[in-house]
Write a structure and sequence with these properties.
The protein contains ten helices and twelve strands. The chain is an alpha/beta fold. Strands 1, 2, 3, 4, 5, 6, 7, 8, 9, 10, 11 and 12 form a twelve-stranded mixed sheet that branches. The longest helix is centred in the C-terminal third of the chain and has 17 residues. The relative contact order is 0.14.
């Protein structure tokens, strides 16, 4: 699809090398259609990498999408330059002045902290509350999913004994749901976290529906029954080598990490990881954009 992004965004070059169609703002102005407006609240430390990962997946349908990258006001990023953030991001306070067809709230490496201890927690809560009435459908990823389930539905994350790292198969529980249309009965999900969401906690909430889960990782995909919020606790957007880089990073920090499960060939960390989740990732994001955003959002944004 034509993905409308700033012509100077570094992710544009990476996407074009993969033969992914992106469209500059200038060219988009010549098309007489209304693009979907999607905000990405990027909480990941390596923001430029996350930009490429998500934009790659959002560029896989015939729909035109206009992206707004969002940075948390008052939070100082240690891994992304101020020039990049000033040039390509809007602040979290600016989001509260707009309406969007869809929003993505990413994960963040803060899951071992209580939610209230995260320095941008209050600002994030404002965004989540605002999104309920001003964003047609919000997709929450990993820690973002746990934050959303906690703030909106009172479901707390559960700390595990050790970090869960690897590729784990989840079972589709609602094969007729549009979000999982075309999925096999089981699908692999990259996972990297210290906490989990218990399936029994989701099932006990009458406002939520459990779409997919794993005996190992817990709830994988949850949605609100009004179809306005989707919670994905894994990282389908991850690149082939993302878990390998995290493993090497943790080794250098002296954390003695366990080898990511079901990831390296023959469990050899010197081997190249095999990507088994790419098709599921593209299908998931295409289904979300098509069925939960495009097919349902009002044509006039002010009607959301």
């Amino acid at each position: 699809m034509p993905l409308k992004i700033d012509s100077d965004l570094p992710a544009k070059t990476a996407l074009e090398k993969e033969n992914i169609f992106v469209m500059t703002s200038e060219r988009a102005k010549t098309q007489d259609i209304r693009p979907l407006k999607i905000a990405i609240v990027n909480l990941m430390p390596t923001k430029e990498t996350t930009e490429v990962q998500l934009l790659r997946l959002l560029a896989n349908t015939p729909l035109q999408v206009e992206i707004s990258l969002v940075n948390m006001a008052g939070h100082v990023s240690k891994h992304t330059g101020k020039e990049h953030l000033d040039r390509f991001y809007i602040s979290s306070s600016a989001v509260l002045q707009r309406k969007f067809d869809g929003m993505i709230i990413t994960g963040a490496p803060v899951e071992q902290l209580a939610f209230e201890q995260v320095d941008y927690w209050k600002d994030l809560c404002k965004i989540m509350d605002y999104a309920k009435k001003n964003v047609f459908c919000t997709l929450y990823i990993c820690w973002g999913a746990m934050a959303g389930l906690y703030h909106l539905y009172g479901i707390d994350k559960q700390l595990m004994d050790s970090k869960l790292s690897g590729i784990y198969k989840s079972k589709v529980l609602t094969p007729k749901d549009p979000l999982l249309r075309g999925f096999d009965d089981f699908f692999p999900v990259p996972t990297s976290r210290y906490t989990t969401i218990r399936t029994q906690d989701v099932k006990a909430n009458k406002s939520l529906e459990l779409l997919a889960s794993s005996d190992v990782t817990g709830a994988t995909i949850v949605k609100s029954k009004d179809d306005r919020s989707i919670f994905m606790t894994g990282h389908l957007e991850y690149d082939r080598d993302t878990l390998a880089k995290e493993y090497d990073r943790d080794k250098k920090k002296g954390l003695n990490p366990a080898l990511p499960e079901n990831y390296f060939t023959a469990d050899n960390p010197e081997s190249s990881p095999v990507s088994t989740w790419r098709s599921s990732a593209h299908l998931f994001y295409s289904n979300w954009l098509n069925y939960y955003v495009y097919q349902s959002t009002p044509y006039r944004l002010k009607d959301i």
